[in-house]
Amino acid sequence: MTEWVALLRGVNVGGVTIRSAELRDVLSGLGLTDVRTFLASGNTAFRSTRSHGDLKPAIEAALRNRFDYDAWIVLVTREEIETAVASFP
After folding, report:
1. CA gap 85, 52 in Å, rounded
2. Residue 75: φ, ψ to 5°
3. Where does the pLDDT of residue 89 fall: very low under 50, low under 70, confident under 90, or very high at 90 and above?
4. Model pTM greater than 0.70?
5. How far is CA 61 from the centre of its chain?
6. Which domains does the chain have, with CATH numbers?
7. 43-76: string of b/e by CB count within 10 Å (b at 16+)?
8. What band does 11 get if pLDDT is binned at 50, 70 and 90?
């Protein structure tokens, strides 16, 4: 199972307010597990067996439907985040 990180663009600024509990509910409703949110950033981590090509549009559509905004996310694996952090000390 892959650990994913979703970075939501434009959340909790410009009138788009999403509560962490609601965000967790939306992602859990997609069958994602161990969903965690980070402060009020709109950034989340979760586990899934689904592919990037399946997850990204599914998450964006679920966010659009639930919160009525033009959702766009950056979706990367935890490994990709760790590699980026290690490369730029």
Report:
1. 21
2. -120, 120
3. confident
4. yes
5. 12
6. 2-87 (3.30.70.1280)
7. bbbbebebeeeebbebbbeebeeebebebebebe
8. low
